[in-house]
Sequence to fold (208 residues):
Amino acid sequence: MTVLTPIPQSQLADQVEPGVTGASCSLQRTGSLWQLGIEAQELTTAVSQLAEQLESDDAEVRAQALAELEAALLAEESNKAALAAKADATCWVIEHLRGQAAYRQQQAKRLNALASCDASRADLLEESLVFVLTQLQPAATRFSFPNHELTSRKSSAVVIDDEEALDPKWLAVKTTSQPDKAAIKEALKAGRQIEGAQLLSRRSWRIC
Fold:
């Protein structure tokens, strides 16, 4: 996993060309600081800081961050080396964020599994406790302890023993439908016009 180490604001400030303002300022090059290694670290840190702003609740902040990223790339349209460096730094941040997301998803699954085990054990303990207490006091509907109370309420539920044995009048009929996208796709590719559907061509990208 790529670890992004923030650099001091004073160093970030040094990246900005004197007199440069607007959307592309935080990713501008100065020449003197753009050395191998330092250049990549500074660019990656700047992109990472802009990426954090994409999570802002303020739509203007998100729009400004996107505009700055785009402007930084467009500013190097005539400089292939600089454009490649900025694009590469952006790819590093994307890979880092996706790696972090995958790690957190794994952690979430692990925590969900642990939570499920905890809940299951709690349910089993409660069932065991209720079984013992109701065996001792069958007529009780509430049990009081020094720090807790165990209460109950009566409810009723229908249990279907044999659905096929039920008279049809007791059956609720449900019907569902959904577009057959596979068939529609083949028909559209064959040149047929289908009202309410169209065939869109997309290109997918991935960083490798």
